[in-house]
Amino acid sequence: MATTKRMNSGFSDRVMGLVKSLRSETPDCLAAGVVDMATGMLLSYETVDNHPAEVLDLLAGATLDLFQGRTVVMIEDIFKERRGVSSDQHYFQEILVNSDNLTHLFVRMNENQDVVAVVVCRKSVNVGMLFAQARRVVKEHSGL
Questions:
Q1: Whose CB among 60, 64, 115, 120 lies 3.0–4.6 Å from 42's, allowing a Cys bridge?
Q2: How far is CA 14 from the centre of its chain?
Q3: Where are the alpha helices (DSSP H) in the chain?
Q4: Which has the closest alpha carbon to 97: 135, 62, 141, 60?
Q5: Are 44 and 137 in contact (CB under 8 A)?
Q6: What are phi and psi of 29, to 5 degrees?
Q7: What digits encode the pLDDT tens for the residues 22-70?
Q8: Which pairs count as long-range contacts for 89-97, CB under 8 Å and 24+ apart, including other chains?
Q9: Close Cβ partners of 139 (under 8 Å, ≥ 6 residues apart)
């Protein structure tokens, strides 16, 4: 199942291409999606299961909290201040979350910090391969 919520068809096509590549090229991948941090929306996803819309909407919100929640932004601001950094670049680029049965990888796009790719895999995934493949796919789709 796949969906896209943004109207710009060129951007939309690139987002859907990223999701398809993540689903097919990331080991043990059960689901992949792309979250727009500026709007807090899940732009596109593919999954092996059907999930209620509420859960998918919460995924986008949770991704936003992970990367740009109030406390996370405070930590980034302290690091920037102490290191004399004045850019808007975010420090946290990748986050790995393990649940009881799954491994979730969240990766910011390099060129567009407001776009985060999400990959959900079986917990048995080789984490090194997961990072390697996800990073490669994200780099190939860096024009988002």
A1: 60
A2: 15
A3: 9-25, 53-68, 70-83, 127-140
A4: 62
A5: no
A6: -75, 130
A7: 999 999 999 999 999 998 899 999 998 887 778 877 889 999 999 999 9
A8: 89/113, 92/66, 92/67, 94/131, 95/66, 95/67, 96/127, 96/131, 97/66
A9: 110
Rg (CA), the chain: 15
As a whole number of angstroms, the distance between CA 56 and CA 110 comes to: 24
Q: What is the Cα 44 distance to its own chain's centre?
A: 11
The alpha carbon dihedral of 52, 57, 59, 65 has a sign of negative
| Token code pair at residue 110 | 């390099």
- pLDDT for 5-23, tens place per residue? 444 678 889 999 999 999 9
What DSSP character marks residue 30? E
The per-residue b/e assignment along 92-105, b for 16 or more CB within 10 angstroms, e otherwise, is eeebeeeeeeebbb
Are the C-beta atoms of residues 5 and 45 closer than 8 Å to each other?
A: no
Contact yes or no for 121/28 (Cβ under 8 A): yes
